[in-house]
Each structure stands twice: as structure tokens, then as C-alpha cells.
Design goal:
Blueprint: H1 4-7, H2 13-24, H3 34-71, E1 75-78, H4 84-95, E2 100-115, E3 118-127, H5 143-147, E4 159-163, H6 164-168, E5 180-191, E6 194-208, H7 213-216, E7 219-223, H8 224-230, E8 239-244, H9 250-261, E9 266-269, H10 270-273, H11 275-313, H12 315-323, H13 328-359, H14 361-369, H15 379-382, H16 393-419, H17 423-428
Parallel strand pairs: 3-7, 4-6
Antiparallel strand pairs: 1-8, 1-9, 2-3, 2-5, 2-8, 4-7, 5-6
Helix pairs in contact: 2-13, 3-11, 3-13, 3-16, 11-13, 11-16, 13-16
């Protein structure tokens, strides 16, 4: 008995052994109750769900931003009032600014496109052949487009590029490389019968994917010289496509551009264009995190009931331990360990399953598709090719620590109640 105080050092071997033994004991021997098992399962599912949900949302946000930033400028510069030569001089000045990776002039107009008896609206982006390499989503730097004849021939030729879903999507035109499409503009030609819309037939040279179905369903690329003729913009550009090394530093870049050009250029950035997207994603991410954390908190509350039931089953054991020298602090720590172990096991298993699902998300999606008609995450419906997921280790660690902290916190109440048990009263009725 004299060895007990040394063996019962705070969270020492004795306390850990007792806590683990109580958890492993069979139910008929007063072990963990069904409620304890339910609390463990609840924590496991909540942790796994939070990791999977936040990883998918991170993947969704990253994929969406990559697609948007790949298919549109980081900073827009309006040069419609300048001649082609003046706009190119401004572009050259901006390209020398630190943090600017490329500057490319372009023209953009909305048109009606027809092919195979189908009609749809589209946006024509006119760019120079040498600027294809500045488009991040063209993994080959535009070599396939150039090989198909893009930018070659008189006035840039008649070869264009189309977004994959505009060309062959469910609501697209049903065309492939080599097929012809007719582009009808809002500009008009005057003739003996009055004004008629300008139109011309073009050959599809290549199709591209930005990663965003929204953009791939809308955009076409046309050689600059050809677009200047079609849209009656001879010797003029509309905008400058300014790309940055860090797309998030648009404010600093616009200030530097204003200084370099003497405030001669009106600029705006992609954030102002996509503010609604960004705000919606942030609000959604925050609310989902709070919701799942509340669910996890409710799951950990079951630990209180489970440990209380265990305390009632172990009243005689507590009384004996108290009479042989285990203090109230020791009893408190034993049952605190019981609740903490339940939470830790649930959190660790939930983290493992969550990480496993996220790192094999493609296989999980394929498995789900086996049991449902069609595709669960149709690209044309959700605007994404496949279910994106990015494992955020910081989120994983925070989730595990939250589950552990909540388990310890809720275990304090029944553990404190166990430590206040009177051994004399407990043994009197045994």
C-alpha cells in the first residue's frame, strides 16, 4: 500500500492501466456502455466528414480559381482609346514592372455561332499567335493550335480555337477539329437591301479546356488580324491581358501600373469581376465548418453519459481505490482518461478514414457511380471535371485537436462527479 502513491503519479501507469482496463471490460463486468460506443462512432464520423467536406471545398475553390485565372486576366487594362502602336508601347512598359509575368493585347466580342443546324452564343477572344504561350491552360504553349494553322495565312487565316464544351458538349455545336462553323456578329454591312449582320465561316483548328465548364462552354479564340477585320477594329485593341506572378497581389500591381504609365491606363482586377464567387465560397466554407463542428460537439456530449454510466458501474471499485490510498485527483484523472481515450480513438480513426477517402477521391467517385444511373458529379451540371479534393494538413490537425479538446472538456464533468464519491457510503450498500 505504501507503493501506491508512487505508482499513482498524475497520469502515471496505474491511472492509465485502470482507464484502459475499464474501457476493455465486457459490458456484463461493468465496462464501457453502448452509449460510449455510440459516442466513439459519432466522433469518428464527424471527424471524417469534416476532413472530407473541407478537402472537397478546398479542391472546389482551388479548381475554380485556377480555371478562372487561367482563362481570364489577373489585371485588365483598357486600351480601346489608343492606337495599336500606342497600346503596344503601354504593354511594353507594363511588362517591365516587377511581378508582371506577361502582357497581351486582345479583343473580345460576343457573337452567334452556328454549325450542324445548331445555334449558340459565344465570346470570341482575339489574340496574337505569339501570345498563345501566355495562356496557362494551353499546356503545350499553343503548339497544337499553331500546328493546325492558327494565325497562319492572309490576315491571320481562318482557323479558330473553341472551348471543349462549346464544340462538343451536351448543349454545344457538335463539331470537331477540321469542321466549319459560321460566326455572326452584331456589326453590320450596308447593301442595296439595307444593313445585314457581318458573318464568316471558320475552321475549328483545336479545342481547349480551361478546367471550368462555364468558360469552356463560352469562349473561342481567333487570330488578332482576322478579328480586327471581322469586328471592324482595324489598328485597335480593346484590352490588355496582364498576368502576375502572384494573382493575389493585384492591388499592388495596379498601383505600380498607374505609376509606370502616369495614370494613363484604366485598370481593374479579377477580384472585382469575381467578388460574388469569392464571397460565396468563403461564407459557404465557414458555415459548413461551423455546422460539422457543432455536430462533432454533440457527438462528444455522449461521452458524458457514457462515462457517467461507467462511474455508476464502478462505484465499488472507486470506493476500494479510495480506501487504499488513491486520492480524488487520481480518480478524476482515471475517468478523464476514459473520456479522452474514447475521443482520441474516434478522432484518429476518423482522420485516417478522411485522409484515405480524400487521397483516393477519384476511386471513391468511380465506386459511387457504379450504384447510380449516369454520373453523380456530371461535369456539365456542376461545372467541374471530376470531384476535386485537396488535402489540407492544417485542417486535418485542427480537426483532430478540436475533437480531442472537446472529448477532454466534456469528460471533466463525470470525472469530477466520480472523484466526489464517498467511499464509506458506496461500500455500505455493497
Amino acid at each position: 500500500m505504501s507503493d501506491l502513491p508512487a505508482a499513482a503519479s498524475p497520469f502515471g501507469k496505474l491511472e492509465r492501466t485502470l482507464a484502459w482496463r475499464y474501457l476493455r471490460a465486457k459490458r456484463e463486468h461493468g465496462g464501457a456502455s453502448l452509449i460510449s460506443i455510440i459516442s466513439f462512432v459519432g466522433i469518428f464520423f464527424a471527424v471524417a466528414a469534416l476532413i472530407i467536406t473541407m478537402s472537397i471545398m478546398s479542391g472546389f475553390r482551388a479548381t475554380l480559381l485556377d480555371a478562372l485565372l487561367g482563362g481570364q486576366p489577373h489585371v485588365y487594362g483598357v486600351v480601346a482609346s489608343y492606337t495599336e502602336e500606342e497600346a503596344e508601347q503601354i504593354a511594353e512598359t507594363i511588362s517591365l514592372i516587377d511581378g508582371v509575368s506577361s502582357v497581351a493585347p486582345y479583343i473580345e466580342e460576343y457573337v452567334l455561332v452556328t454549325a450542324n443546324g445548331r445555334k449558340t452564343g459565344a465570346a470570341v477572344r482575339a489574340i496574337r499567335q505569339e501570345d498563345l504561350a501566355t495562356m496557362p491552360f494551353l499546356k503545350d504553349g499553343g503548339e497544337a493550335a499553331i500546328a493546325s494553322g492558327f494565325g497562319e495565312g492572309k490576315n491571320g487565316g481562318n482557323v479558330i480555337m473553341m472551348g471543349a464544351f462549346l464544340a462538343a458538349g451536351r448543349e454545344g455545336l457538335g463539331v470537331r477539329p477540321g469542321d466549319k462553323v459560321e460566326i455572326i456578329t452584331s456589326q453590320t454591312n450596308s447593301g442595296p437591301l439595307g444593313s445585314t449582320p457581318r458573318s464568316k465561316a471558320y475552321t475549328v483548328g483545336d479545342v481547349f479546356k480551361t478546367g471550368s465548364v462555364e468558360l469552356d462552354r463560352l469562349y473561342m479564340f481567333m487570330p488578332m488580324e482576322q478579328a480586327q477585320i471581322l469586328f471592324q477594329s482595324k489598328d485597335r485593341y480593346q484590352m490588355l491581358d496582364i498576368r502576375l506572378d502572384d494573382p493575389n497581389k493585384t492591388t499592388e500591381a495596379m498601383a505600380a501600373i498607374a505609376d509606370a504609365t502616369g495614370n494613363a491606363l484604366y485598370t481593374f482586377d479579377w477580384k472585382s469581376q469575381r467578388a460574388g464567387y469569392l464571397n460565396a465560397l468563403q461564407v459557404e466554407r465557414t458555415m459548413v465548418r461551423l455546422l460539422v463542428m457543432v455536430i462533432m460537439g454533440i457527438a462528444t456530449l455522449n461521452i458524458i453519459v457514457g462515462v457517467v454510466m461507467l462511474v455508476k458501474n464502478k462505484t465499488r471499485d472507486i470506493a476500494i481505490l479510495r480506501t487504499i490510498g488513491l486520492g480524488r485527483g487520481g480518480v478524476l484523472r482515471v475517468f478523464l482518461l476514459v473520456g479522452t481515450i474514447l475521443g482520441t480513438l474516434g478522432a484518429v480513426l476518423g482522420m485516417a478514414v478522411g485522409i484515405l477517402v480524400v487521397t483516393n477521391i477519384d476511386a471513391v467517385e468511380a465506386f459511387i457511380n457504379l450504384f447510380v444511373p449516369g454520373e453523380v458529379f456530371d461535369a456539365e451540371v456542376y461545372g467541374l471535371e471530376g470531384l476535386p479534393a485537396i488535402l489540407d494538413w492544417g485542417e486535418v490537425i485542427r480537426t483532430g485537436l478540436y475533437a480531442l479538446g472537446m472529448s477532454m472538456l466534456v469528460s471533466i464533468i463525470p470525472a469530477w462527479w466520480a472523484s466526489r464519491q464517498d467511499p464509506v457510503s458506496a461500500l455500505r450498500f455493497e
